């Protein structure tokens, strides 16, 4: 795993070249204001390269030596276990010609699904998410609508298909903002259940905003405890007008989530996030190209 000097290698001495800021404080502040949904505000600073006091560096180094290897090995064991479960459950199962993969039914399907659910939760535990509180919210006078339409939204018993998870923003933010929704999840004209994920933190924010993947996973593994909160909103049933206009459907669900989650609506998207990342890495031309 490639890590630069903001990780534990910087614990033993002065500032390394890789952690020197590529932008002045004024430039960084202006960028953070312009691209606020992606600005990182935890103890590790912009892109996880912020300066750390010596005690924090020593602590990070010790966690990297003691905690990361244990979690890495445990995570790999879970992946191998699920691979073996899938292999066993697909033995002697004919592939579906048009799909090119086995179609599982009966106990095989149940075993794969249940093992996937259990091992996924175990993987979150390995990553430090020991407790995951879940809240179910209801709207005034919405209970009857929910009960009347839940069979249309989630066909657990009648259909072999599972629920489909859609991340409608197309990218991730720092958790304070809500970006425009893509219409893919709303083209089917069926009810959806909005879910809000929150990541409370003290030192390291698990929200993936402006940090490269390797560094993010490394710092996530270095943190003893990570927090996540799940808020489930009632099933949203589209009106006839929303069924005919996926953009309207997506926008109304987005406004509902922003209201319930106390989130700030933003018109930025993946393109702006890439510009922001490029600028943080010292490529100021990306901003000018975006403006043009």
From TrEMBL:
Q: Which domain of life is it from?
A: Eukaryota
TM stretches of this protein: 60-85, 111-132
Query: Cellular component terms, GO, for this chain's entry?
Result: endoplasmic reticulum
Picking any one GO biological process from the record gives: phospholipid metabolic process
GO molecular function list: lysophosphatidylethanolamine acyltransferase activity
- Keyword list, A-Z: Acyltransferase, Lipid metabolism, Membrane, Transferase, Transmembrane, Transmembrane helix
Protein name per its UniProtKB record = Phospholipid/glycerol acyltransferase domain-containing protein
Q: Which organism is it from?
A: Oryza punctata
